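TL;DR need structure tokens for one chain.
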Amino acid sequence: MVHSISILGSTGSIGRQTVAVAEHLGLNVRALTTNRNIQLAEEQARRLHPAFVAVTDEASAKALRIALADTDIAVGSGENALCEAAVLSDTDAVVTAVSGAVGLRPTLAAIEKGRRIALANKETLVCAGDILFFGIQCDNPLQFVLAGWVASLVFSNIVYTLTVSFGDIGKALAVVLLVMQVGGSGGTFPIEMTGPVFQAIYPFLPFTHGINAMHAAMAGAYHMEYWIELGILASYLIPSLALGVVFRRPVIKANDWIIEKLESTKLI
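>> reply
TL;DR here they are.
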């Protein structure tokens, strides 16, 4: 469970939303950072009472230090202060929402200290994607492997059942299902950015629950989140096995009849 966070880039768009969520959930915000928007940073600091505020711009940091002189909040300046905010003690997670490559050093520093990372900074991935990926470990590696195993079993079973039961038509259905899942499971883009059709089918796709289970294994699950998602994913085996074991023979007969009629039309 996450109880305390540091927000790097708290005055930006994502940072402001993170502050609002933290206030709503009652999270303890340990540190805030900004480039030079000290007016908003002061407002946030007085509301959230962090232990530390980092300001990249030296002159702005001096002004904020004067503005917060009546509090016990420490104010740092420069890029080193960003790293200090990222590794502050008693911080469970670090939200990296700063713009540009300036987010790289504090993100790496937080990873080295074992902090959980909520990354909203694409430049960090572009500049040091391999370093970040190799430096981050799953919260529960065994659960991650189990989620991958169950996902592979479910998808393989569905594709095999469709192919055996419907022949070439089943292969086409499997391809359509795969395309729908890539676009509609939230794996490529956040589901809110997709069209209304994908948003409507999102909860019913196997991919959705496979991705959610892997997310929970990587970042840590809330309560029974992981097992619920894994159970929903595994439940797709029930209709797949029912089709493959119970209904396959009548379906094959119907499929053969359809193919025979199609061939008789001379169109195929």
